[in-house]
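testing teh design pipeline on a random one, pls ignore if ur not involved
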């Protein structure tokens, strides 16, 4: 090796290491921006609605696009709500259903409130305690996310879920910050390893939530879809909890004698191992 090559080799090696370190320390940011109004260019007019339904069966007649999803400043998709389910006439039938679509309106994931489990949880602790299912387009498994209350000096506002893979399970906790100006949460993996922050700026109608992953952490698609749909649901959570408490009071007073489940939710309680006779 010549003297000139010998001198440049360490510099190239150092530059390569620096580049690798920078690549490893990438900090990903996803933004969920909930618009102040449901009237916008994406969904203007009946014809546009028909075109959207033609692209995906998940885009039902009562689906309303209410926000955008971006990655590092570049738009990658939309957040939508099932208005029909959210504004059902009977309070016990109201449900929160949030959907995540790609920029071309291909379906990615759905966060869906499960009425029976939400009411059961709320009955057991006298606090609005919703239970959600997340269905993803590229996953064979469902993910369940539930709110829990932890007795402590401070009442902690927690959501927990697990993601099952082919050969292992990862456990996650989304904990709301005790003191914050917005709707801020910290996300932990397997107990106490912080992997992300959800920083919120909530407005009277809209709101924005940044999902910032810790440096070097690369979220799998399943986790990403859970956090994006969860962020899209945050602005509705107080209303969900308040409604659940009202329903439970009505049940205890005998004002509601029977809870009827939506047909689609009913199917989720079927036994997958049942033997057809």
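output:
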């Amino acid at each position: 090796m010549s003297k000139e090559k010998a001198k440049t080799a360490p510099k190239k090696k150092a530059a390569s290491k620096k580049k690798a370190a920078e690549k490893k320390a990438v900090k990903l940011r996803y933004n969920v921006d909930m618009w102040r109004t449901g009237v916008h260019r994406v969904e203007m007019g009946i014809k546009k609605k028909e075109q959207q339904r033609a692209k995906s069966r998940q885009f039902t007649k009562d689906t309303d696009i209410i926000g955008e999803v971006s990655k590092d400043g570049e738009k990658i998709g939309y957040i939508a709500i099932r208005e029909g389910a959210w504004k059902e006439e009977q309070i016990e039938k109201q449900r929160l259903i949030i959907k995540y679509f790609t920029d071309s309106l291909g379906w990615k994931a759905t966060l869906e409130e499960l009425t029976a489990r939400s009411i059961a949880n709320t009955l057991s602790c006298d606090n609005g305690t919703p239970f959600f299912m997340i269905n993803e387009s590229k996953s064979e498994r469902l993910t369940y996310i539930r709110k829990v209350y932890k007795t402590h000096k401070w009442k902690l506002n927690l959501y927990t879920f697990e993601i099952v893979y082919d050969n292992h399970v990862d456990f996650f906790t989304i904990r709301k910050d005790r003191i914050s100006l917005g709707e801020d949460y910290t996300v932990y993996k397997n107990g106490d390893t912080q992997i992300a922050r959800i920083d919120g700026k909530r407005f009277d109608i809209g709101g924005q939530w940044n999902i910032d992953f810790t440096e070097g952490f690369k979220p799998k698609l399943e986790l990403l879809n859970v956090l994006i749909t969860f962020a899209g649901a945050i602005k509705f959570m107080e209303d969900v909890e308040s409604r659940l408490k009202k329903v439970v009071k009505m049940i205890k007073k005998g004002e509601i004698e029977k809870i009827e489940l939506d047909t689609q939710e009913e199917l989720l309680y079927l036994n997958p191992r049942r033997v057809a006779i």
